[in-house]
Amino acid sequence: MNVVLLGAPGAGKGTQSSKICEKLGICHISTGDIFRKHIAEKTPLGIVAKTYIDKGQLVPDEVTVDIVKERISKDDCKNGYLLDGFPRTVAQAEALEDFCIIDRVIDIDVPFELLLHRLTGRRVCPNCGASYHVDFYNDKNCSSCGETLIQRDDDNEETVGLRLNVYKRQTAPLIKYYKKAGVLVTVDGSKDSEDVFSDIVEALK
Ligand code: ADP
Ligand code: ADP
Ligand code: ZN
User: Fold this and answer.
1) CA–CA separation, 133 and 121 (whole Å)
2) If both were cysteines, with which of 35, 75, 150, 171 could 49 make a disulfide (CB 3.0 to 4.6 Å apart)?
3) Is 88 a catalytic residue?
């Protein structure tokens, strides 16, 4: 099964992705995680991607599409995959259609007022990618791997504002796009994480 997880920054895509992939035995592909790995390793792609990510802008479509195309051709994607944070523009969705069939698109819907709070309070594990919130987790270390948690550079209030505008302008049109294609299911992402997960499992049946 090939699934796309849609939702604004902070909607809970990363949080739900790991659980869905574990349950379905499919491969988790997060374009944001791929870019951050390149940035940490200072690869040529990382250096380019950082200039966009720091400004809250999207990395250009051509670059992003190629990365996904290469990633899903790997062996561990044979049983299916979950795309977290891709596509993020209609042009990316159109390009994706040329090399894969998407069975289901889950849109995690969260009111805008909540997103700013979720993102500015987010702490992440730079080692395994796990995501936490200061409201629910006080420990300084990751509960899965023990690494010291960090705040992402782009989770400051100013950049979050820019990213939410980019979402409205460039990504939100995908809701209509996938509704028209008949593959979209919307879940209420303002519920507790466990309840959101149950709703997603139901939507994937
Ligand atoms: P995304 O990948 O969509 O940007 P994350 O999964 O990283 O979002 O979640 C953003 C922040 O909100 C994190 O701090 C996370 O712990 C928190 N969060 C995720 N889901 C929920 C939820 N259902 N209720 C409350 N907080 C949540
Ligand atoms: P979040 O879900 O919190 O917005 P991500 O980790 O998915 O964060 O993405 C972080 C940044 O990486 C984005 O703000 C954007 O600059 C870049 N990025 C991730 N996915 C894409 C994509 N599909 N197209 C273009 N840029 C992307
Ligand atoms: Zn970790």
Assistant:
1) 5
2) 35
3) yes
